[in-house]
Specification:
With 464 residues, the chain is mostly helical. The protein has a single domain, classed as Amino acid/polyamine transporter I (Up-down Bundle). A two-stranded antiparallel sheet has the order 1-2. The chain is globular and about 60 Å long. The N and C termini lie far apart (52 Å). The protein binds phenylalanine (PHE).
């Protein structure tokens, strides 16, 4: 490990930090509304299959490349002797910067909701549109959020990132469990559970498959070199495959648990399940209000604090990607690199912040042939999460199997775990990286581009 670069002090620290990255708004905010729109349990099933079958192998490849080279995503490809492939690293860093620019804004909503609910302002749910359009308030919260993120990242890997994850991740689990127990006591809770766990296979259509795949990707933080970056701080003694399995399991568990918490709430209030992005922001304050003036602010406060915590460990991880690049490649000091990148990303996020109604031209930003009209924030999200992540995931799989070569990859994963050699798990990961991932991820990329940008609905050609 290069001197002064730092690293995780333990394997557990690495796992918690990487799981902290994976577990975020994607699990608690996005997953339930995607399940609601995707018809319930059938979507959940598809999502779980994709997480394990596709994302897990790409995660192993990312961590292996990072740990082999002990470098950021751009430096890593160069260090392996494939300078031409460093463009994958640049694409990853670009995705990180773009994702963080709008993710920080949604994180700011969660944080703002925490404050409003604690103050007993339950009508915030009906004022969702007004709240998000109020750029001064959201700007204030997002400034605080970005500064807190930069502060942790500037402290380095073990003192900042690892320590924060060790406190935040267990608290998050406890908060979710408490809320589930409460949700299960509500009238009609079981109807919600049924919607969530009993699959209706007639609900699986091309669109459901496609969105479940995108969700699996985004949720596991795969496809932007983030796990490569975290892997670069991992000790040579650590077992990569089992660490990746733990991270996948934790992420999937939190998403799954989030459903057990949300759907009883949704059904007990008789709310439509397909409410979209507003599902938790619009409807949950009403649930909390029904708990009365004492329990309402407490339970609701816990919920939105949880959301903000989950978002926080994710923003920390995303900021680390461009920061590591500036440290390794531009030889900057960590604190300078962190603040420089944070300020840049914050400025880049301003149009997203203004696109929720504050500025008309950004609110009605673009009208794409397929995806239709969207605001600036949705557009950035479409470019980065839906387009770049699968593309980078695809490229990483192809690079690992055919450029870096499977033998070298296998040598790196055997470091710290000799028993993986020749095991079925290794054969499986190799097969997935070489065949399943390139084919499936390559197809999603093509489908996204055709569908959204050119308006050619490839998915309607599929059954359903
Ligand atoms: N996985 C995070 C979530 O579920 C979001 C994220 C995506 C973080 C990509 C890093 C990279 O909210």
């Amino acid at each position: 490990m290069s001197i002064g670069r730092g690293g995780f002090s333990s394997r557990l620290g690495f796992i918690l930090a990487a799981a902290g990255s994976a577990v975020g708004l994607g699990n608690i905010w996005k997953f339930p509304f995607e399940v609601g729109q995707g018809g319930g349990a059938a979507f959940v099933l598809m999502y779980l299959v994709f997480c394990f079958v596709l994302c897990f192998p790409v995660m192993v490849a990312e961590i292996a490349i990072g740990r082999k080279t002990q470098l950021n995503p751009v430096g890593a490809f160069k260090a392996l002797g494939h300078r031409k492939w460093a463009f994958i690293g640049y694409l990853g860093i670009a995705s990180a910067v773009l994702i963080l620019s709008f993710y920080n804004v949604v994180a700011a909503w969660a944080f703002g909701y925490f404050v409003e609910i604690v103050l007993g302002h339950f009508d915030i749910g009906q004022r969702f549109g007004e709240f998000t359009a109020d750029w001064i308030t959201v700007g204030g919260y997002s400034t605080i959020f970005m500064m807190a993120t930069a502060y942790v990242v500037s402290r380095g890997v073990s003192d900042g990132i690892e320590r924060a994850a060790k406190i935040l991740m267990p608290s998050l689990f406890v908060m979710i469990l408490v809320l589930i127990l409460y949700a299960l006591t509500l009238p009609n809770a079981m109807e919600g559970i049924r919607f969530y766990i009993v699959p209706d296979f007639s609900q699986i259509t091309g669109v459901v498959v496609y969105s479940a795949l995108g969700q699996a990707f985004f949720s596991l933080s795969v496809g932007m070199g983030l796990l490569m970056t975290y892997g670069s701080y991992l000790s040579k003694k650590a077992n990569i495959v089992s660490a990746a399995a733990f991270i996948t399991l934790m992420d999937v568990s939190v998403a799954t648990l989030a459903g057990f918490m949300i759907f009883p709430f949704v059904f007990s209030l008789g709310i439509e399940t397909d409410g979209g992005p507003g599902l938790i922001f619009v409807t949950l304050p009403g649930v909390f209000e029904s708990l009365g003036p004492i329990f309402g602010p407490i339970v609701g406060g816990v919920f939105f604090l949880l959301l903000a915590f989950a978002a926080f460990t994710s923003t920390i991880s995303v900021l680390e990607v461009p920061t590591a690049y500036m440290i390794d490649e531009k030889k900057m000091k960590r604190s300078n690199a962190t603040w420089l990148v944070a300020i840049f990303v914050f400025i880049l996020g301003i149009p997203s912040m203004l696109s929720m109604g504050a500025v008309d031209a950004l609110t009605h930003f673009i009208d794409l042939p397929g995806a239709g009209e969207m605001n600036f924030m949705d557009f950035v999200s479409l470019i980065s999460s839906d387009t770049f992540l699968p593309l980078v995931g695809f490229l990483i799989a192809v690079f690992t199997a055919y450029v870096w070569k499977t033998e070298n990859f296998n040598l790196e994963i055997a470091n710290g775990d000799q028993s993986i050699k020749g095991s079925w798990l290794q054969s499986y990961v190799n097969f997935a990286i070489g065949y399943i991932c390139p084919v499936l991820l390559g197809s999603i990329f093509i489908v996204t581009v055709f569908d959204n940008f050119l308006g050619i609905k490839v998915l309607t050609l599929l059954p359903g």
